[in-house]
Design goal:
Layout lengths: L2 H5 L5 H4 L4 H12 L20 H11 L1
Length: about 60
């Protein structure tokens, strides 16, 4: 495997994009205490009007 192909493997993501300082802090605290939920984040949305559930599922699959 060439160096270029190896560079983009999922395991080497830190070589592609480094963490921001806040992400480093979040990772540090998570690794120190994985059961802590200080950085739990939740998003609630209200959707009005007609919703095509199949398109919505595909859109969220793409986002995730």
């Amino acid at each position: 495997m060439s160096n270029q192909q190896n560079k983009f493997k999922k395991q080497n993501v830190q070589d592609i994009q480094s963490l921001t300082p806040i992400q480093e802090g979040m990772l540090y605290h998570f690794l120190k205490n994985p059961d802590n939920n200080h950085y739990f984040e939740q998003l609630c949305l209200t959707i009005r009007g007609r919703l095509d559930l199949e398109i919505m599922k595909k859109a969220w699959d793409h986002v995730v």
